[in-house]
Amino acid sequence: MHSPLKARRRRFILIISLAITLGFLFLLNLLQLSRSHDASSSIQKLSERLKELGLDSTPWSMPDSIENNQEEEEEDQGKDGLIGNRVKQDYSKGPKNQHQQKLTQKELEVLNLNLNLNLNLDLEAKKNPHKYLGGTRKMDTEEKLKYQSGKQLTLLGVPQKDQDFEPVTIPKPVYKTDVSTNFNLNPIKPLRFRIYSHNIKNGGNRPLTPGESLWNDRVHDLAMSMKFHITANTIITLQELYKYQVLDIMNYLNLDGDAGVAGGSNSDGDVPTWDFYGVGRIDGAEYGEFAPIIYNTKEWELVYSDTIWLNEIDTRISYEGWDALYPRICSYITLRHRELQNVINVFNTHFDHIGKLARKGSAKLIMDTVQDLQKQQCKNIQGNHWPAFIMGDLNAEPKEESIKILKDGFVDSVTLATSNNKYGHTKSTVTGFEGEVLLNGGQNIDYIFAPKYAQLIDDVKDKVDNKAKSNKEKKEKCDELKKSNAFAERADLTLLLYGMLHSRFNGRYMSDHRPLLADYYISNKCL
């Protein structure tokens, strides 16, 4: 038999065990109630915040139009931005109907993160949705009208999914330019000018890539970078943008009231200071990506312009070339400085990202086009021998064959830079929208090419230090030079500054490429 003491001990242990179990269940119940209360509170906060913004408080509802096209968009999302949803929200994880769905704890955590990180500036964003002039001040009524005047043109030039385009033929413009290369009659005058080049990433109605912001958010940063770096005689070349994007950039550059050369209107108040030349690569007019060249009409006169298609069949027809995935173009212009009468030729292009043969063939075609321009005759003027510059996104590293072809007649501006005149990044013209290209070692595929006779600034200094001291020797040398009509023998072309600029501000990339900048100086050897 068991003793009474042992029986009492067993009952005591049983009671203690039961009490511990009940206590544990009680605490667990309290924890669940707390989580439920937190969830309800978080949902309420989110709903109130969304209502302040005037947004629907059922964020997981899925529009029928998006639901019906979801599978189609996923299949075609890589087709060069021809289709797709421009909105950044990912509806694929939401319900397939218009009804509310109860949020899981994981979804709630995602919403809370979005609430804390992305909606902190909600009130300011509502007042200033396009981050106008830095996003720190409210636009008045007049400013709103000016800024929004072109917004009805949104997506202008973007091909739609159901559109079919036949190849077009664009005749070559007649060369009527009286560009003087008689350097005895019209001496070359000193001129400093700047080239700013940037692939700014097409907009369109395609899905956003990871890390990419909407165009309405990116355009402000892009345009402000241009305006900040504009100086006297600046020429801007851009790649990979549709016509509506070009017009948005032009709206920013031509805002009334801007001081100096950065923008505004001419003295009559109606003609914008900044203008551009460019055509769409699909139809030679509005559709498809542009490679526009932008210039200040107060400083430069456009005397010739043309666009060629980069293919092996006919450069006047909008065909894809060789193994290229898309039709590619090169737009080029001749600009004459209004005051000094100096002339420069600017070639802007975007090579195919797939076709290696296409890039090689494109380089040869552009070299041929430069030579043809130099042979053009008008009014007994023998050709255009002024310097030509080639820039753009060439989708090729420096050692690729296409770049070697261009280097037969041109020099990459970065190779002329020294530690005393080089600014910014030293590696990778491409970043990606999340910096992923940098993590993989980077890519240098964007260029500003100058004529091969362009010089380092140190070379020019050496020539100045070692030039003939006597006036007699200098006169004899200049008399000899006057017999030549070659620009390179009559003038020096010198790189003054070069920069690979920054493209990420406030945690956001304005493009997946970085802007390039080069300052050149033309000087007469005998002046």
Automatic annotation (TrEMBL):
Keywords: Coiled coil, Membrane, Transmembrane, Transmembrane helix. InterPro entries: CCR4/nocturin_mRNA_transcr, Endo/exonu/phosph_ase_sf. Residues 54-102 are annotated as: Disordered. SUPFAM superfamilies: DNase I-like. It comes from the Eukaryota. Gene3D superfamilies: Endonuclease/exonuclease/phosphatase. Residues 457-491 form a coiled coil. GO terms for molecular function: 3'-5'-RNA exonuclease activity. The chain crosses the membrane at residues 12-31. This is Endonuclease/exonuclease/phosphatase domain-containing protein.
